[in-house]
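Hi C.,

You asked whether I'd gotten around to modeling the 241-residue construct. I have! Everything is below, sequence then structure, no commentary in between.
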Amino acid sequence: MNSPASTAAKPAKSAKKPVAKAPRRLAAEESGTPDLEQKKAPQQPRAVETYERILTACGDLLGEVGIERLSTNLICQRAGISPPALYQYFPNKYAILHELGERLMRHQNELLVPWALPETMRLPADEFAASVAQLFLGTLALTEQMPAGVWVTRALRAVPSLQEVRNRSHDFVTDLLVQPFLTAFPKADAAEARLTFRLAIDALYAAHELLFDDPRLDAQAVARTMSSMVTGQLMTLRKVA
């Protein structure tokens, strides 16, 4: 016969079973530095559809439950797929957020490519400031229109392991802008120009975040103020050159 102690132990043991909702790697999601590498890229149309459903579900849930409560189980439920289907592509929720962050940064940076020209850098101060304000507002609108763009922006700052996405993007943009500026003003101090553009990029990005956090602010007014600040410093560099 079983003793009372062994009989009482069985329910406790069986009560643990529902916790095992996904592979062991799920338990490691929150411990240490998460793996951000995508496991494989989808090739077939059906795989691409599943992949995009994962990203869409993650973006939708991010705005609903926040970063902390977001989980791969919730993403699977929203996407209508099984955990193994998700784990074919992503090892954890942070890898999904990483991909969403990469997409957002890539689309934002695409707005800069036709703007980052020597001709732009030579514009008179008022015209240059107007172009910076227009670019600022365009980036703001793009971020707001992208699925979970605002929440992904917040995640890139709030989650330490995702900050490299933002930093790498800002480094890329710095290089993108410094080159045409030095082409237009070859006598300018390259190190000073790089520092100025890097600080300007981070300041403009922070202003976007401020607008997301405080919708009472006038985006047009913020754009004018920020563009005036950036333009003033660049005009100083142009005079020195």
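If it helps when you're writing up: The two ends are 93 Å apart (CA to CA).

Thanks,
B.
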